[in-house]
């Protein structure tokens, strides 16, 4: 605890690098090293080009130099000055071409590798979310999930990792070029270095913390922007009816304004270093001419030396600028790295759902002294529940809202884990397993429909829809007449969250979805509450028909819905109040 606090309160580049090292796999790190390696390789060409330009400028001035250089690469003989210049010119041109080819290849390699890593990481993160505990999921906000998987992890790669690679390679070129200038003229090099260092230091001290702050602000504003947008679109009906259009638009506008201001500030401020550097270097260049003129009698002699400086200077300048820009980008992406890291470590550390050898459900579902409490709450939602549900039995659950009916079902589904007691199948198999989930058809209280065709919603997530199973499910869920009346039949698109359907139609699609897999166990959580009496009565008949050889657990609002159940469990304030037959319960009431 102490340690994590320390890391988050010191948002340094080093801590971000530590977090990146933690988040990335070994292969990813190797791949990233490849990017740095490639960048260094192309820097190496840059330096060769720079040296050749310096040599070329020198040779133009004094061809004797050229003969010396050419003999170094094995070209000897009595060469005329023109020939010497010719060879060196060809060499400069050739190396320049190669350098830029390498730079082009580097750009492609860099971007493709980074994007590929980002893509893999996002998948990995989503898989981690997929393994998360349902209880953990209940504490989450979907805008945050969207922001972390969508925005932050992308920025972590395209901003964070990429900038570290660029900073490394650019710094290498920078230092090498400075080295070259030291070789040519130590005092000038020292001057450039001193000015560059002072300038760099001021930038780092003054600008970087600012960029970190802006990064944080941007992150926060983006989150609220998307949250407000989502709420605006999801709650449109309520917003219109309650006359709160202005309020919701204002809430969005507030954060959107904040976001755009920070973005403008970031982008504009990132231009400043270039302007300052340009001014400084022109100054240095003018100063250099002044100093050199002082030493050299004839200005013509200076052409050679200056040509080199010119190149070095004009390469140094954007180089330094890029280093500072990338530092700013890195700094502003630190908060994204932080958030990804936080999210990554807080999601499922251990696997929530086990992959066990497939088992057969033969006898009973057995709850022994089960107590459950939701995360961040003070009160038990379920307390000391003992319940045996025999295979083939139809169990009804009834009770006031908030009495724990849905929670009880979620426990039986293995979605929630009791903090005390246990839930077992046939006294030995765990309910927190994919194998148990596969045996269940579950119809929730609030149905989630995807914005796709009715049939895609029934075969939920299945690429190849089995027509026979589909038709059987449609018939059993009393959807046939409804579908036949649609021009596009079962291919009709239902709209986001099924917005184009009535509540009863949505519930029947959910029932068809549960039946499509032909499950052994059927669980209904107030699945018929949105239906009119007549449809409910008809659907109950079908449910009874499809329940013949199945185990059924059915939560209902009205006692009459549970008429056909073998036993009825009465829930009260998180406890089982009584278990009785329909007739007995009716008598008591
Ligand atoms: N995700 C949650 N976090 C905290 N408390 C919850 C959560 N879901 C339900 N509860 C609480 O648990 C109790 C039981 O809820 P639930 O099982 O949904 O009741 P029922 O289905 O009988 O209406 C209620 O008091 C409810 O407020
Ligand atoms: Mg409920």
Could you explain how this protein is built, in words?
This protein is of the alpha/beta class and 589 residues long. It has two domains: 24-346, ABC transporter type 1, transmembrane domain (ABC transporter transmembrane region fold); 364-588, P-loop containing nucleotide triphosphate hydrolases (Rossmann fold, 3-Layer(aba) Sandwich). It has 20 helices and ten strands. It has helices spanning 2-9, 13-23, 26-61, 63-72, 81-130, 134-137, 142-184, 186-234, 236-241, 245-269, 272-295, 302-346, 405-412, 434-437, 454-458, 467-476, 480-484, 503-516, 533-547, 582-588; strands at 364-372, 382-390, 394-399, 420-425, 429-430, 440-443, 521-525, 551-555, 567-572, 575-580. It has a six-stranded mixed beta sheet, sandwiched between helices. Strands 2-1-4-5 form a four-stranded antiparallel beta sheet, with helices on one face. Helix 3 crosses helix 4 and helix 8 (186-234) runs parallel beside helix 12. Residues 1-10 have low confidence and may be disordered. The site of adenosine-5'-diphosphate has 12 residues, from helix 13.
Give a summary of the structure in a few sentences:
The protein folds into 2 domains: 323 residues, ABC transporter type 1, transmembrane domain (ABC transporter transmembrane region fold, Up-down Bundle); 225 residues, P-loop containing nucleotide triphosphate hydrolases (Rossmann fold), CATH 3.40.50.300. It contains 20 helices and 10 strands.
Please describe the biggest sheet, giving its number of strands, its sense, and whether it closes into a barrel.
6 strands, mixed
Task: Kindly provide the name of the CATH class of the largest domain.
Answer: Mainly Alpha
Based on secondary structure, the structural category is alpha/beta
| CATH architectural category of the largest domain | Up-down Bundle
Q: What's the number of domains?
A: 2
Percentage of β-strand residues: 5-15%
The whole-number mean of residue pLDDT values reads 85
Q: Report the uncertain regions.
A: 1-10
Tell me roughly what share of residues is in helical segments: 55-70%
Query: Rg from C-alpha positions?
Result: 35 Å
């Amino acid at each position: 605890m102490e340690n994590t606090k320390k890391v988050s309160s010191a948002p340094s580049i080093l801590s971000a690098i530590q977090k990146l090292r933690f988040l990335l796999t070994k292969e990813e790190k190797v791949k990233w090293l490849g990017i740095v390696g490639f960048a260094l390789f192309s820097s190496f060409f840059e330096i060769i080009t720079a040296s050749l330009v310096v040599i070329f400028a020198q040779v133009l001035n004094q061809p004797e130099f050229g003969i010396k250089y050419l003999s170094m690469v094995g070209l000897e003989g009595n060469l005329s000055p023109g020939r010497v210049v010719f060879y060196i010119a060809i060499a400069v041109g050739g190396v320049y071409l190669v350098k830029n080819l390498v730079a082009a290849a580097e750009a492609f390699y860099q971007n493709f590798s980074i994007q590929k890593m980002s893509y893999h990481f996002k998948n990995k993160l989503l898989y981690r979310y997929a393994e998360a505990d349902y209880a953990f999921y209940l504490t989450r906000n979907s805008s945050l999930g969207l922001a972390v998987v969508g925005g932050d992890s992308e920025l972590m790669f395209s901003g964070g990792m990429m900038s570290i690679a660029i900073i490394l390679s650019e710094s290498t070129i920078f230092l090498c070029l400075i080295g070259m200038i030291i070789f040519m003229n130590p005092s000038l090099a020292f001057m450039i270095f001193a000015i560059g260092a002072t300038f760099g230091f001021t930038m780092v001290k003054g600008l970087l913390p600012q960029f970190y702050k802006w990064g944080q602000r941007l992150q926060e504003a983006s989150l609220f922007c998307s949250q407000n947008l989502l709420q605006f679109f999801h709650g449109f009906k309520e917003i219109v009816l309650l006359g709160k259009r202005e309020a919701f638009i204002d809430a969005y506008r507030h954060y959107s304004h904040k976001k755009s201001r920070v973005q403008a500030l970031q982008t504009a401020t990132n231009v400043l270093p270039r302007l300052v550097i340009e001014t400084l270097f022109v100054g240095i260049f003018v100063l250099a001419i002044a100093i050199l003129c002082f030493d050299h009698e004839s200005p013509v002699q200076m052409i050679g030396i200056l040509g080199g400086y010119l190149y070095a200077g004009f390469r140094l300048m954007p180089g330094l600028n890029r280093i500072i820009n990338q530092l700013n980008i890195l700094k502003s992406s630190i908060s994204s790295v932080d958030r990804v890291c936080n999210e990554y470590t807080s999601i499922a550390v251990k696997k929530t759902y086990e992959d066990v050898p497939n088992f057969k459900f033969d006898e009973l579902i057995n709850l022994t002294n089960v107590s459950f409490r939701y995360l961040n709450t003070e009160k038990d939602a379920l307390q000391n529940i003992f319940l045996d549900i025999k295979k083939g039995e139809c169990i009804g659950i009834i009770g006031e809202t908030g009495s724990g009916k849905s929670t009880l079902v979620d426990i039986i589904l293995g979605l929630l884990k009791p903090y005390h007691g246990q839930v077992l199948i046939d006294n030995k198999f765990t309910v927190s397993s994919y194998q148990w989930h596969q045996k269940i058809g579950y119809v929730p209280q609030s149905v989630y429909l995807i914005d796709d065709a009715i049939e895609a919603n029934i075969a939920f997530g299945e690429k190849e829809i089995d027509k026979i199973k589909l038709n059987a499910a449609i018939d059993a869920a009393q959807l046939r007449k409804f579908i036949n009346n649609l021009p596009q039949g079962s291919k009709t698109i239902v709209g986001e969250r099924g917005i184009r359907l009535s509540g009863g139609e949505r519930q029947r699609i959910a029932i068809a979805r549960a039946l499509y897999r032909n499950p052994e166990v059927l669980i209904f959580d107030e699945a018929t509450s949105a239906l009119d009496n007549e449809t409910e009565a008809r659907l109950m008949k079908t449910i009874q028909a499809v329940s013949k050889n199945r185990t059924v657990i059915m939560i209902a609002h009205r006692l009459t819905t549970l008429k056909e159940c073998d036993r009825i469990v009465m829930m009260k304030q998180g406890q089982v109040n009584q278990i009785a037959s329909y007739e007995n319960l009716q008598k008591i009431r």
